[in-house]
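User: Fold this; tokens only.

Assistant: Input:
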Amino acid sequence: MRAPPRIKICCIRDEAEAALAIAHGVHALGLVSAMPSGPGVIDDTQIAAIAATVPPPVATFLLTALTDADAIIRQQQRCRCNTIQLVDAVPAGTHARLRDALPGIALVQVVHVVDRRSVDEAVALAPAVDALLLDSGNPLLAVKELGGTGRVHDWALSRAIVERSGKPVFLAGGLRPENIAEAVRTVQPFGLDLCSGVRVGGHLDPARLAAFVAAAQAACS
């Protein structure tokens, strides 16, 4: 029997949502800073306030669309999250610069799964980061989609990344209580990441959150 996947709830808006997610046993919270599009954006001051309330071992993910290493370092120092989630591609050498400047801070690189080239991209990036997160955005649009689309991508490609990358992989994109068993069975990810699938009217919904956690646990029983 496989261990149940870790659960990360993204788009946390305030301390009350953080506490609700933690009470349901999630392993990580996603805090969304300025983005070109998508839901859940809050300012860095609010991110810092929420992160300060989160007890270990729950991880706090700072979602950043910044690509300049120095700007990312300054943002992490303001927000004080213990994980940086890079939602866009960054220049060569950026991961190493972040490692040097922010010891002890985990790095998670998002790969937007579009086609077979995404598998090669993920495998190439894996040695530089602590984990990969596979989402369904489109960074090639005029206004980049860097997450929060609610769309499912090709899980066969995600499974190939799990098998080849050698790093923990979080699966995101269109996950909800109704499809989680199939997602876990098909991809076998280390973790699951979702935003809209546990929300009603934009707010974290206790019933949907409980259903998702139960479904994720049952998928490995």
